[in-house]
Automatic annotation (TrEMBL):
Component of ribonuclease P, a ribonucleoprotein complex that generates mature tRNA molecules by cleaving their 5'-ends. GO terms for cellular component: nucleolus; ribonuclease MRP complex; ribonuclease P complex. One of its GO terms (molecular function) is ribonuclease P RNA binding. It is found in: Nucleus, Nucleolus. InterPro entries: RNase_P/MRP_Rpp29-subunit, RNase_P/MRP_Rpp29_sf, Rof/RNase_P-like, Rpp29/RNP1. The gene is Pop4. This is Ribonuclease P protein subunit p29. Its main location: nucleus. Keywords: Nucleus, Phosphoprotein, tRNA processing. The lineage of its organism: Eukaryota, Metazoa, Chordata, Craniata, Vertebrata.
Length: 200
């Protein structure tokens, strides 16, 4: 066994090596205590930023035809169940479309709702050939709706300069396409003015 002086010297050297930032008087003060906590100074490591996985570019999506609907799938009857699901979705969203429901509250929710499966009609347009087109919305993009009509024709209708109407349980809502130039995913955070105008 070591004598007390050698033990003190050993402990002092150990503390000096373990805690290089401490002064000698601080080490001596630490030795007078019964418990000694040895500090550890780990090496700082820089975190590597993980690479974000990139999706397809717009050109790649077009080449792969990801959003194309095959001609044999362009039938109105195929998408009627989608419309029934959409109606139930809107009823749940609006807590039931009751006669005493406030129209502006329903209108606000419809403007932010997902319209895939809704039956819409073009009621006004700068281009007369679009007026009267009625069908189920199959796809919504930033600038256009893709609509399947009862005649099994897929129509691409621009939002700009068109007014659309949709009806559900007796409630009719009008969508001003010029004020609606957003992707479906962006509408939930958008604040809409319920009164819209369009220069036709």
């Amino acid at each position: 066994p070591q004598d007390s002086e050698k033990a003190k010297t050993f402990v002092h050297a150990l503390l000096k090596r373990s805690m290089p930032k401490m002064k000698d008087e601080d080490i001596q003060d630490t030795l007078t205590r019964k418990a000694v906590v040895l500090e550890h100074y780990p090496k700082r490591t820089t975190k590597k930023k993980g690479k974000k996985t990139k999706g397809f570019t717009a050109k790649q999506r077009r080449e792969l035809r990801l959003f194309e609907i095959e001609p044999e799938q362009q039938r109105y009857s195929i998408f009627l169940p989608l419309h029934e699901l959409w109606k139930q979705y809107i009823r749940d969203l609006c807590h039931g479309l009751k006669p005493d429901a406030q129209p502006h509250m329903i209108q606000g929710k419809l403007l932010k709702a997902d319209l895939h499966g809704a039956i819409v009609t073009v009621t006004k347009s700068k281009c007369p050939s679009y007026v009267g087109i009625t069908g189920i919305i199959l796809q919504e993009f930033k600038h256009v709706f893709k609509i399947i009509t009862k005649e099994d024709k897929l129509k691409v209708v621009p939002k700009l300069n068109n007014v659309f109407s949709l009806e559900l349980d007796g409630f009719i809502s009008y969508i001003y396409g010029s004020k609606f130039l957003l992707r479906a995913s962006e509408r939930s955070a958008k604040k809409f003015k319920l009164k819209g105008t369009i220069d036709l």
